[in-house]
Amino acid sequence: MKWFWCVFFAFWPILAIVVCAIAPSMNWWFPGEAMSPLGRRIDDLFYMILVITSITFVGTQLGLAYVLFTGARRTEPGNTTKAWFSHGSHELEVIWSTVPALVLLFIALYQLNVWAEYRIKDAFPEKEMVALLHRLDQKRTENSSVALAEVTARQFEWRIRYPGFDADGKLLPLMPDPQPTDLYDVNELHLPAGAPVMINLRTDDVQHSFFLPDLRVKQDAVPGLIIPVWFEAIQERSYQFLCAELCGWGHYKMGARFVADSEAGFLDYLRKLHQKQNDDGVRPESDDNEQ
């Protein structure tokens, strides 16, 4: 029976390693390649931590297997090997306390730049964002926001507010409060690709979570707060857009999409929204009807 338990406890770590090894080929992994520059850096952090934890896991499981099989062998009839007893080792305790602490400190310092770039507002790529807004020919003032949309989560949908156009057809800046010229859509966020863009995230009710898995972007929407979130899609395509916070019985309904357009395509989308929103439904009679 002792050999059964030795094999039993050795089997599960081996199975875990095998499953992890075949996971990428079975799509039990990331949802494809990261589609943003920051997302790729986040993936690099993940893989670095994965390597460290994998080495630690394999090392500890090899040590466990050695102890199990050595102990079982020494209980065999005729084995005269004497057990070795220890009352503790100050040197070993220092080593196994210091090494994990140094590893954790290395991880903490290594990820600081990525964390700061994504979370600290002063580190946002504001110059690139302003350059994009100038290319979009947005009518700007010195204090205008660099956000191109306001995303409001509520039970159970995403409501998107965009800036509208002035009388000359020039894109207006996004104001903190809704304006008569603002444009709206639900569950479909459009923004330009190939440049950093910012949204203002808020919620009307409970806590939600803005999640773009392909871009590795996730940010909680907290009641009472307006949270700036920036990201950059490197390809013009449609991406999955989810709520990653259990927000009530209709949480499953908050599946939306994020469409990364070209800069011209983004303006065309806003113009179509403007035309649709200002359409009164009245159509002139055709010439045939008049006759």
CATH fourth-tier homologous superfamily of the largest domain = Cupredoxins -  blue copper proteins
Q: What would the average pLDDT be, to the nearest integer?
A: 90
Main pleated sheet: 5 strands, mixed
User: How widely separated are the two ends?
Assistant: 99 Å
Tally of individual domains: 2
Q: Given this structure, which CATH class of the largest domain is correct? A: Mainly Beta
Low-pLDDT sequence parts: none
Question: Order of strands across the widest beta sheet?
Answer: 3-2-1-5-8
Helix content: 40-55%
What's the helix-strand series? HHHHHEEEEEEEEEEHH
Please tally the helical runs, counting DSSP H or I stretches of 4 or more residues.
7
Q: Could you say which overall geometry the principal axes of the C-alpha atoms support?
A: elongated
Q: SS-based structural class? A: alpha+beta
Number of strands: 10
CATH architecture of the largest domain: Sandwich
User: How much of the sequence is in beta strands?
Assistant: 15-25%
> What radius of gyration results from the CA coordinates?
28 Å
CATH-derived topology of the largest domain: Immunoglobulin-like
Describe, in plain words, how this protein is organized in 3D.
The strands form 2 sheets. A 5-stranded mixed beta sheet has the order 3-2-1-5-8. The termini are far apart. The radius of gyration is 28 Å and the shape is elongated. The chain is built from 7 helices and 10 strands. The model has no long low-confidence stretch (mean pLDDT 90). The protein has helices spanning 2-22, 37-74, 90-110, 112-119, 126-135, 263-277, 287-290, and strands spanning 147-154, 157-162, 183-186, 188-192, 197-203, 208-212, 217-221, 227-231, 238-243, 256-261. The protein folds into 2 domains: 2-76 and 88-118, no CATH class; 125-277, Cupredoxins -  blue copper proteins (Immunoglobulin-like, Sandwich), CATH 2.60.40.420. 40% of the residues lie in helices and 20% in strands. The protein is of the alpha+beta class and 291 residues long.
